[in-house]
Amino acid sequence: MHIPDGILPLPVTAGALAATIGLTAAAITKIKRMPDPREGIPRAALFTAAFFILSTIHIPIPPTSVHLMLSGLLGVMLGYYAMPAVVIAIFLQAVMLGHGGLTTIGVNAIIIGLPALLCGWFYRWMRPTALRRGNRSHLGLAFAIGTFGSALAVVIFVMTILLFMPVYIDASAERAALLTLMLVHTPLVLVEGLFCAWLVHYFQRTNPELLCGSVAGNSVP
Amino acid sequence: MKLHLSFTRWDVRCRLLATVLLAFSFSFVTALHLLPVILAVALGFVWLARLSPKKLLARLGIPSLVIVAMVIFLPFFGGSTVLFEAGIVTVYQEGLAGAALIALRFYAIMILVFAVIGTLPLHATIRAMNSMGLPAIMADMAGLVLRYFHVLSDDNLRMSTAMRLRGYGAKPWSLSSLRTQAWLWGGLFLRSHERSQRVYRAMILRGYNLEDQPSQGFPQRRDMLLLGLALVVSGVIVFLQLQAGK
């Protein structure tokens, strides 16, 4: 799900980099407004490491292979810390493993980070209602968020590739490629939804303070 | 020999800036005749970094699979000018050119990054990025991420072994296996999270503060000369591309 170097033209990579810098700066401004911004750093680093490890495990689904993206889960667990976490993980993956690329850091950060931020907002908004309605409702919300985050990341990825690849591909081949990529990622989207639901439910039962990007009263404004 | 020594002692901030400049100028190239030029520039850095071909090929292995999977169909579906036809297989000129452009640009940038940034210790890279304006929160997170790779990997290995000893056998494509894995990672986060909070608080109590790090000082003349050289090479590549596009 990471776009490598060399595929996209310069205006796209430069524009996405500018957008990523803007989004990350906005997220860091929000983090700095918290009573103790440093309180959430170890947890964000821990999730960044986990995101790094889990997203390097490739699941073969012919004719390609896919990996977990965890956009929804990152948004739920980290809130505004999700955007800097994604940027760091993508930079380290590019430099250490050659997964993704240096010029496409901006594009890849938007593919994973934007859904994560949206999922974080959505979860914070819906969580009180879901908890009032009971465990099943909360589990359903976490599943919906995990699925939505992953599906949105797939849509942004596919649209970016098909719109900006520097080769003219005829409409029928483009539609076939779009359909194949969507079909290949459908099981992954469902798996991400389930993984997110079970993990969020686990934290809700064991340590609910970990959810919603808050640590020991360091609530997200 | 002297140039090689200068390269290995090159200021990390200048290295990062030069890599970003060159990588973006490489991604600007769309003229096919410039592709060997950018590949030669990237290989020049491999020579300067004294990176062995064996190491380079090993690092390019997995990224190559991704790029091949992405461009392999282009010659057959991209474009309208038929170059070659055999039965139901048709190779288009534009598709073949597009595949070559994408693949060679990819290799040039990847080789450059491995040679110039990949040969640096990651802590030095993060410290240099911090001194160039990366927010302290992000620099702090990046430093801790490097530590948590090992913490999470060790804990994962220990907990997976404990699960296997208690009779757990993972079945691929099974929902119960996926749920067990989710709970395993949940347990891992909880354990590691409590420990990470304690360690970080102890670090702060002992005076750790990335915002108060001493300044790295202005790069030396030799470092600036090398950065200037990278700037000139990037400028030449962009100029040649603009000329080719006219």
From TrEMBL, chain A:
Residues annotated as transmembrane: 6-28, 40-61, 67-92, 104-123, 143-164, 176-200
GO cellular component: plasma membrane
Location(s), subcellular: Cell membrane
Biological-process GO terms, alphabetical: transition metal ion transport
Chief place where the protein resides: membrane
Keywords: Cell membrane, Membrane, Transmembrane, Transmembrane helix, Transport
NCBIfam families per the UniProt record, alphabetical: PRK06265.2-1 (NF004906)
Record-linked PANTHER family: METAL TRANSPORT PROTEIN HI_1621-RELATED
Protein name: Cobalt/nickel transport system permease protein
Organism: Desulfurispira natronophila
From TrEMBL, chain B:
InterPro entries tied to this protein: ABC/ECF_trnsptr_transmembrane, ECF_CbiQ, ECF_transporter_component
Matches recorded under PANTHER family: SLL0384 PROTEIN
Subcellular location: Cell membrane
Protein name: Cobalt/nickel transport system permease protein
Gene Ontology CC: ATP-binding cassette (ABC) transporter complex
Pfam families with a match to the protein in the record: CbiQ
Taxonomic path: Bacteria, Pseudomonadati, Chrysiogenota, Chrysiogenia, Chrysiogenales
CDD domains: EcfT (cd16914)
TM spans (from-to): 20-48, 60-84, 96-120, 132-150, 224-244
Keyword Metal-binding carried by entry: no
Major subcellular site: membrane
Entry keyword set: Cell membrane, Membrane, Transmembrane, Transmembrane helix
Membrane topology term: Multi-pass membrane protein
Protein source organism: Desulfurispira natronophila
Annotated GO biological process: cobalt ion transport
